[in-house]
Amino acid sequence: MRSDQLRLLLASKFVHGLRKGRVGDVRSAVNRNRRLIPGGVPSDNYLSYRPPSASVIPRRALSSSSSSPPPSMVFNTSRLINKTVLITGASAGIGAATAILFAKAGSNVVILARRAEALKAVEDAAKAAHKESGVQGGGKVASIQLDVSDKAQVASLLDKIPADLRSIDILVNNAGFVYGVERVGQISDSDIESMFATNVFGLIAMTQLLVKDMKARNAGHIINLGSVAGREPYVGGSIYCATKHAVRAFTGSLMRELVDTPIRVSEIQPGMVETEFSVVRFRGDKSAADKVYEGLTPLNAEDIAEEIVWAASRPPHVNLAEVFVLPTNQASPTISYRGGKM
């Protein structure tokens, strides 16, 4: 895209944001549109991502005469066409959004989760998204009910994946959760064991299973979902913070172990994201979960999915080792401004 086109795109978004009073949207657009790919790349290979209320569509379908605002981000995804992506914890939230966005980019997707019915809904949505995108290639989606905390289930996973999807190019270790806000001395053994079994041991087991084939093929990308909690601990989250610190340490060690290979290792570290996550933390209490996000605009699942796909779509010599993403009004797990939503 020429510089004059980029200026026009940003100006349009800026004016639209001012009219709507969405200063946060304007800031986001200015930052994200810096990711535009230079000229020389076929426009059909761009992915335009709009907010969750809109849809992801091929850039060629965007009309310059349209009165609607330009997409918030455009980036090249041709490297993802026909790649096979495996995503854990894909029945909702970040995992589901990531599966749909990869499908739109022309990837084949294998999605795993414990909830079979919800997983099937994501499979259908991903297939529909690929069809809607018009991208030629990819689009195969397979859903497999699996609990990553169950070692036997993980060990037998490859036998359950369709034969033409067993060579995994990109592993997204997304499965994870937090139970409760109890302090040390009040935390149940079952909660401790469950969080470590999924957040840490499950992630390691999936990586151990698939990294062997990646090494044999001398190619691959492992993307682990960390958290701001893996950078800074907070009161009432000791076990969850410990699991995410473990993920960060494991990811760093893995990257160093694979430094002499083309296999990339990345960690996405989100701050406050409004998904089912907080509902699970408060054991199904939706009202308590909603209070977590009062007074500010949190991230959403699509924001993080966007970062995951962005990291995966970079050239082979580029590894986004850490992507730390916060809402504009959050500075740390315990510091945020709640003066009103943007």
Keywords for this structure?
globular, 11 helices, 7-stranded parallel β-sheet, alpha/beta, KR_dom, 342 residues, Rossmann fold, 3-stranded antiparallel β-sheet
Question: Roughly how many Å is the radius of gyration?
Answer: 20 Å
Overall number of domains: 2
Instruction: Name the average pLDDT.
Output: 85
Going by CATH, the architecture of the largest domain would be: 3-Layer(aba) Sandwich
Classify the fold: give the CATH topology of the largest domain. Answer: Rossmann fold
CATH superfamily of the largest domain: NAD(P)-binding Rossmann-like Domain
Strand order, biggest sheet? 6-5-4-7-8-9-10
Distance between the termini: 30 Å
Class inferred from helices and paired strands: alpha/beta
* Unreliable runs: 10-44, 48-73
CATH top level class name of the largest domain: Alpha Beta
Outline the biggest β-sheet: 7 strands, parallel
Q: Given the structure, what is the number of helices?
A: 11
Report on the architecture of this protein.
This protein has 342 residues and is α/β, with parallel strands linked by helices. Helices cover 41% and strands 13% of the residues. It has two domains: 1-76, no CATH class; 78-325, Rossmann fold. The chain contains eleven helices and ten strands. A seven-stranded parallel sheet has the order 6-5-4-7-8-9-10, with helices on both faces. The protein has a three-stranded antiparallel sheet with strand order 2-1-3, with no helix packed on it. Strand 4, helix 3 and strand 5 (108-113) form a beta-alpha-beta unit. Residues 10-44 and 48-73 have low confidence and may be disordered. Residues 83-276 form the Ketoreductase domain. GO terms for molecular function: oxidoreductase activity, acting on the CH-OH group of donors, NAD or NADP as acceptor.
